[in-house]
Design brief:
Layout (H helix, E strand, L loop, with lengths): L21 H25 L1 H25 L5 H53 L5 H24 L1 H27 L1 H9 L4 H42 L5 H14 L3 H17 L1 H26 L8 H37 L19 H4 L19 H10 L1
Keywords: Cell membrane, Membrane, Transmembrane, Transmembrane helix, Transport
Pfam families: AI-2E_transport
Family: Belongs to the autoinducer-2 exporter (AI-2E) (TC 2.A.86) family.
């Protein structure tokens, strides 16, 4: 009798394979990850306003800390030193807003009072120049109708006192919160940094402290250099406005100085347009000379003052500064636009330190002096193209093409 080969019993159709041991743990981890991200996003949405206030306070503390450290080295306690620096900064801001507000109110009142006379003069000039018959009475009635609509809208806005009062209280509360956070971040800066470094390994501590030191130096230096340029700009424009006998000279000079320095690219044109318009009310020649002075001063500042003052801090390219403001406004609206310049300055410094750079080969396209062309491509064999350290003279065009083909 032959022995039968052993065989396994066939599996039943309803039998299931055992679950892998790692699958329940992976499912639990996935659920916890999704829940953690959901809670983090919910907290971020709820605390978004607080995070923006903390971010503003952090960069204000970085901007004020060089002055606080200067006073602290002269035996000032950090608390009183921070209070003194913040008081000076708040006083300058309050002076700017007060003077600008009084100028704006006086200018609007003077414009409204002079509007009928300006309208009649303009109508007379148009009728005499173009042989027309426009009636000043009709135009003044239209202006009165528009002013009536404005008054109606103003009365409706004034009726909503509760909404305006709530907005004012929110602004005051946010300002006090920023001031409080700025004071503590600046006055207790060493303790705050020690607390952060206590949870980091030694190598990471050195990198964090190095980055923090760069942020303090470059942010504070950039803000102070722009403030010095704004002071010089305001003084020069004040003298020009006094010589041209333009009203509100002090307020207009502050306006030009602050906007031209702290709003990149477009701030120069916005700041300079207002003095020209105010001078135009005094006469066309005053406006023309004001425009000439603003143009000449901007060239003097761009090529003489700014390179000397910002040489030891950070000189941002106008395109980089303008792009930073646009990016900041897109991310955080108005606070982002205000923080864009110090953030961009710090990032530019970080990139310049941590990015490795290589020797640049010589080429006519890299020479800003000579324009590219047949004459620029011709290289004298005995004369090097550039004697700057780290830049080698270019090879002939034939060898460049050969190397490019091999690559």
């Amino acid at each position: 009798m032959s022995a039968q080969s052993p065989h396994r019993a066939p599996l039943r159709p309803d039998a299931k394979s055992p679950m892998p041991s790692w699958l329940p743990r992976a499912m639990i981890m996935a659920v916890w990850t999704v829940a953690a991200f959901g809670i983090a996003w919910w907290l971020f949405v709820r605390l978004q306003n607080l995070l923006v206030l903390l971010l503003i306070a952090l960069f204000l503390a970085l901007a004020l800390e060089p002055a606080v450290n200067w006073l602290h080295r002269r035996r000032w306690p950090r608390g009183p030193a921070t209070g003194a620096v913040m008081s000076v900064a708040f006083g300058v801001l309050a002076l700017f807003l007060t003077v600008l507000g009084s100028m704006l109110l006086s200018q609007v009142v003077a414009f409204v009072e002079a509007l009928p006379t300006m309208t009649r003069s303009a109508m007379d000039w148009i009728n005499s120049t173009f042989n027309t018959s426009f009636s000043p009475t009709t135009l003044l009635s239209e202006i009165s109708g528009v002013s009536g609509l404005v008054e109606q809208y103003a009365s409706s806005v004034a009726g909503n006192v509760l909404g305006a009062g709530t907005t004012l209280l929110v602004l005051i509360f946010n300002g006090l919160a920023i001031a409080l956070f700025t004071f503590y971040l600046c006055a207790d800066g060493p303790r705050f940094r020690r607390t952060i470094c206590s949870v980091l390994p030694p190598r990471t501590q050195r990198e964090v402290l190095r980055a923090w030191e760069i942020a303090i130096d470059k942010t504070g230096g950039y803000i102070y250099s722009r403030a010095l340029l704004a002071l010089i700009c305001a003084g020069a424009h004040y003298l020009a406005l006094i010589v041209l006998d333009v009203q509100f000279a002090f307020a207009l000079a502050l306006w030009v100085g602050v906007l031209s320095q702290f709003i990149p690219t477009v701030g120069t044109y916005i700041g300079g347009a207002v003095p020209v318009m105010v001078a135009l009310m005094a006469g066309p020649w005053q406006a023309l000379w004001m425009l000439v002075f603003i143009t000449v001063y901007q060239q003097f500042e761009n090529y003489v003052l700014q390179p000397r003052i910002t040489a030891k801090t950070l000189d941002m390219h106008p395109a980089v500064a303008f792009g930073s403001v646009l990016a900041g406004a897109a991310v955080l609206n108005a606070p982002g636009a205000l923080l864009a310049l110090p953030v961009g300055a710090s990032l530019q410094t970080f990139l310049s330190i941590y990015i490795k750079r290589y020797k640049v080969e010589g080429h006519p396209l890299l020479d800003a002096e000579a324009p590219p062309g047949p004459e620029a491509d011709r290289v004298e064999p005995d004369k090097p193209v550039s004697e700057s350290p780290g830049v080698s003279p270019p090879e002939p065009a034939k060898s460049l093409g050969k190397d490019a083909g091999q690559g």
